[in-house]
Amino acid sequence: MTFVYMKHLKTINEMVKNPNLVKLTLKRMLIELNYLGLNLKLFDSDRTYEIYLTYRLLKKPIELLPNVLKIIDKYKKEFLKIDYILSYEQEVYIDNVLSDGLVKYVKKELFDICIYIKNSKSIRIKPNKYIYHYSHPKNRKEISLKGLIPQSWKNSDEWKNEPTLEYEDAIFAINSKNTIWDNKYDCWQIDTTNLKNKWWSDLNFKNTTHIMTFEPIPKEYLKIIKYI
User: Fold this and answer.
1) Residue 212, class by beta-carbon neighbours within 10 Å (0-12 exposed, 13-18 middle, 19+ buried)?
2) Chain segment 133-150, per-residue pLDDT in tens
3) Is residue 153 within 8 Å of residue 165, measured between CB atoms?
4) Is 202 in contact with 210 (CB distance < 8 Å)?
5) Please, which residues bridge with residue 171 across strands?
6) Which has the least CB within 10 A, 28, 33, 39, 221?
7) Domain boundary among 119, 154, 173
8) In whole angstroms, what is the distance from residue 64 CA to residue 35 CA?
9) Which residues pair with 50 in a beta bridge?
């Protein structure tokens, strides 16, 4: 038993930058979920990707789903306070389960949920003098007037249906003039010389080329260099 406990503890230490705080917050969430009768264990988890700690709730009765989601949504805010993103995806389906008398199988509506926990601010980046942001031409007028404003993951046509890619409201940029994102988008050059923004490695790429900031960028630091 001790060996299994240490094995999973090591996994969490490898995954996150503050394992004790993440473990404590996760434990609090699981305690609340267990009040619903789920009987979950703290370290009953998977690693599916290097940057994620994943936690799976499988084949649970559908009547528990509203309260489960209420607790998970509550802890999305708790994890955000310590710079972590909690996201999840769910599936509802019909399956055969043993009846209360454990004598025969009956069809019941069940749900699965996979929870993902990842750092939102993991690697601090010093950007080049010029970095580049790509945006759809429909945003050109607004950017020209207001500059760049951090946008929600839910507003992204490309990423909003991918729970594993969820992020805080952010602005993304390319830290290289040699990387072309997509020629159907406008390219905005950002002059970082006097810009006070803090920049981080894009949490879904984990490199020094794809970067992100959580602060707005005034229009004075922007110049459109390619447009459709």
Assistant:
1) buried
2) 999 999 999 999 999 999
3) yes
4) yes
5) 213
6) 39
7) 119
8) 11
9) none
